[in-house]
Amino acid sequence: MNESPPASSASLLTRTMPLSTFRFPGAISVHWFIYLRWVAVLGQLVTILAAWKWFVIPLQLQPLLVTVGVTALTNLTLMFWYLGYRLRVAEPAHSRLWYTVVSIVMALDLVLLTCLLYFSGGPTNPFWVFFFVNLCLAGVELTALVTWCLNGLAIVCFAFLLFDHVPLDALGVGDLLLPISHSGKITQIHTGVFYAFITCASVIVSFTTLVASRLRKRDEELRKLESQRIRSEKLEALGTLAAGAAHELATPLGTIAVIIGELQHQLQRENVDPLIQEDMATIRSELNRCRSILNHMSARAGEGTIERKETVQAKVLLDMILAEVKEPERVVVEIDPKAAGKTLYLEPYVTAQALRGMIKNGLEASPPEGRVSVFLREARNGIVLEFRDQGEGIPLHLLGRIGEPFFTTKSAGKGMGLGVFLTRSVVERLGGAMTVDSKPEQGTTVTCFIPAQNGSTL
Q: Is there a contact between 450 and 432 (Cβ–Cβ < 8 Å)?
């Protein structure tokens, strides 16, 4: 399916995550964003009334109050829309639609700020510095690309204010920053202020997007470490459970083995039906297999539940995976000669056992006449093992949960929901990655990337 895997396991894992868990940039919660806009509405209203009443500045109140009203109305609409939207989406603050809405609202805020400044002195109004506040907020909340687009919009808005605005003589700036449309000429002050705005805005955007990007990267690393820690704790608990089960089951299995042996000898002496003797031999064979598995589990428990890593050829690993597969005639294998010679460094028994579980799942999911295809392919710096069944597939709403411990799509009594979890844990511990891709009525494909030892071949 995939000739070469993505460069990182994170990008592979993202493919199996539902949209609701994909996190878009955003350090400010939805509630805080709406709250900040209400604070802005209140601050603008108080500032306008204070300048008009207390400082007796001749403002055009009607367009200013209309602009503040538009801000309040859009925030009220945003609030009610969000209340309805969060009922449909698990994490609305990290959805694609909410991120788009925030970007549009922030662009609208720059335009509304420009309208307020247009009717209150333009660049002579000291409150034009709030352009930088909006850009700083955008740098924290949005991606770098969107923030730079908003920076370009802010520059255009400020250039418009330099070109035209309603002058206020009460501000005492005289003819220093008259609108270019009134004076008909661009002075050095116009040029200096414009370039200063561009420089300051660009520096603020550069700094905030850089810091925000590093913080998001650190948070993502912390989330990965926390996920790995939780998975390790679950594996330790499963290891303890396995060791306990191996200890408890050893005695009854030994008793059963003794009884089966005596029954076989008695049946042979009495010349009982050969079919019964064959069934007893099958029981003995399966019993020996159970004891072999328990012995290995006990040995691993004594070594700290960690098998020693060895250098193994990819073809040898595949042979180990296929060695104990039931119904091998239903398994179709395709091997890339370039991948067969890849050198891997891993725990042979544990890795083979975990990957064999994917074939077992595929056989159980496929109809009796269905087959499971196994592909061994070369990939950059490693190999790809792909397991493809002919089952009914996994519903999309359940696909994101595949790999959780004790979650299974099988019917009751058919599985414990540990196979995919253990396989993913083993593969990721080797530095690889696993993806699960499924479509209804088209089967399921499990792709495992395992890194090679220094990318070498034998």
A: yes
φ/ψ (deg, to 5) at 199: -65, -50
d(CA 429, CA 228): 9
Summarised one tens digit per residue, pLDDT across range 110-148 is 999 999 999 988 888 889 999 999 999 999 888 899 999
Domain 310-451: CATH superfamily is Histidine kinase-like ATPase, C-terminal domain (3.30.565.10)
| CA 288 – CA 321 distance, rounded (Å) | 19
Give the pLDDT confidence of 144-154 residue by residue, as tens digits: 999 999 999 99
Of 421, 418, 407, whose CA–CA distance to 245 is shortest? 418
Do you know the residue count of the chain?
458
Q: What is the domain partition of the chain in residue ranges?
A: 9-186, 235-302, 310-451
CA–CA distance, 246 with 264 (Å, rounded to integer): 26
